């Protein structure tokens, strides 16, 4: 069964490029295109696509308004096609909050920067979206408790490590928004291209009582702070002169990604060992499973997001099957499970 896709974009060129890229493999079929949300609404009813690609800037109705309406009335997996601008990044993150599964950055007008790589990335995101549970998520969105975790008092030198991919923007927001201001440093690897992670960190900072920043090289890790791996850079934790710091590098992608969750978790296992706690959240693929297993083997407490609460139960499933996960938890309970594990570390110290 091929994945049925509806392409929505006001540019005839982009519609043609997306259609051609998506039809490259036999498992994806573009069943229709639409130039604006009004036409898209009719085609969704008529064609019942598995996935919709959606441009934000369109005539007759902004793509975000259309997305909001679609997710409320007829939850459908949506992949946003975004412009690589500051405004585009902000609107893309808003689209993910409204329920879009994922996004791709629109290729530049002259298609420099690799149209083949863009196409392969787009097809992967469409496949992940087709497997995603948007109906389950839209049904449970209103139920997330807004109860802040009381305390994450932890021994000096402890670290929280979080990794995610598809669906991770919302999942990470839910974890960080309940984290207390006395939590230990948090390091985060979310699969996201360069140009979007600074806005992602800024958005998390607006929504949390802790301070969230895009990581820079050799930043000291401070309590009450979270550090997001910048797009196209690996993030590691290292110890320098007795202090934990961030390290950024552009070595080859690992598990197909840069930033890679495996790279981050592996460094935490090596540098922090049993004083770390880790969580692997929603996402497609297997990145993070090996690194989380290294963390668990080094004595860290590890949590995997539960299947029912994951938009895409890929990364947490592989980690669980490979014995990397101590316990699985719904996304709204992940912060409290991490805090409880840190509390146990504190009492044992």
Keywords:
Rossmann fold, elongated, 2 domains, 349 residues, 14 strands, five-stranded parallel β-sheet, 39% helix, 12 helices, seven-stranded parallel β-sheet, alpha/beta
Can you describe what's shown?
With 349 residues, this protein is α/β, with parallel strands linked by helices. The protein folds into two domains: 3-138, Response regulator (Rossmann fold); 144-348, 3-Layer(aba) Sandwich (Rossmann fold). The chain is built from twelve helices and 14 strands. It has helices at 12-22, 37-47, 63-73, 86-98, 115-131, 134-140, 168-177, 197-207, 261-271, 289-297, 315-321, 331-348; strands at residues 3-8, 28-34, 51-55, 78-82, 102-105, 159-164, 186-190, 211-214, 225-228, 234-240, 243-249, 276-280, 301-305, 327-329. A seven-stranded parallel beta sheet has the order 8-9-7-6-12-13-14, sandwiched between helices. The protein has a five-stranded parallel beta sheet with strand order 2-1-3-4-5, sandwiched between helices. The termini are far apart. The mean pLDDT is 92.
Produce the secondary structure layout:
Elements: E1 3-8, H1 12-22, E2 28-34, H2 37-47, E3 51-55, H3 63-73, E4 78-82, H4 86-98, E5 102-105, H5 115-131, H6 134-140, E6 159-164, H7 168-177, E7 186-190, H8 197-207, E8 211-214, E9 225-228, E10 234-240, E11 243-249, H9 261-271, E12 276-280, H10 289-297, E13 301-305, H11 315-321, E14 327-329, H12 331-348
Parallel strand pairs: 1-2, 1-3, 3-4, 4-5, 6-7, 6-12, 7-9, 8-9, 12-13, 13-14
Antiparallel strand pairs: 10-11
Helix pairs in contact: 3-4, 7-12, 9-10, 10-11
């Amino acid at each position: 069964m091929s994945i049925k896709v509806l392409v929505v974009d006001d540019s005839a060129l982009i519609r043609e490029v997306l259609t051609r890229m998506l039809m490259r493999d036999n498992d994806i079929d573009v069943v229709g295109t639409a130039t604006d949300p009004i036409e898209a609404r009719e085609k969704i009813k008529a064609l019942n696509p598995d996935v919709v690609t959606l441009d934000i800037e369109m005539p007759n109705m902004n793509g975000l308004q259309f997305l909001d309406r679609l997710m409320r009335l007829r939850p459908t997996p949506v992949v946003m096609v975004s412009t690589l601008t500051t405004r585009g990044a902000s609107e893309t993150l808003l689209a993910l909050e409204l329920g879009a599964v994922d996004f791709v950055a629109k290729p530049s007008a002259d298609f420099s920067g690799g149209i083949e790589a863009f196409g392969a990335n787009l097809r992967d995101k469409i496949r992940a979206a087709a497997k995603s549970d948007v109906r389950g998520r839209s049904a449970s969105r209103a139920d997330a408790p807004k109860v802040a975790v009381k305390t994450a008092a932890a021994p000096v030198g402890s670290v929280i490590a979080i990794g995610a991919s598809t669906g991770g923007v919302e999942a990470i927001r839910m974890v960080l928004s309940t984290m207390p201001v006395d939590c230990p440093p948090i390091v985060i690897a979310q699969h996201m291209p360069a140009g979007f992670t600074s806005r992602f960190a800024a958005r998390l900072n607006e929504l949390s009582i802790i301070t969230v920043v895009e990581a820079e090289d050799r930043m000291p890790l401070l309590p009450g702070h979270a550090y997001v791996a910048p797009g196209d850079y690996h993030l590691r934790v290292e110890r320098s002169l007795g202090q934990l710091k961030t390290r950024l590098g552009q070595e080859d992608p690992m598990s197909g990604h840069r930033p890679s969750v495996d790279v981050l978790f592996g460094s935490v296992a090596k540098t922090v060992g049993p004083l770390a706690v880790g969580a692997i959240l929603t996402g497609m693929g297997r990145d993070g499973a090996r690194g989380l297993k290294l963390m668990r083997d080094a004595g860290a407490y590890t949590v995997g997001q539960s299947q029912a609460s994951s938009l895409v139960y890929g990364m947490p499933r592989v980690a669980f099957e490979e014995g990397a996960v101590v316990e699985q938890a719904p996304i709204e309970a992940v912060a409290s499970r991490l805090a409880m594990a840190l509390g146990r570390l504190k009492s044992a110290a």
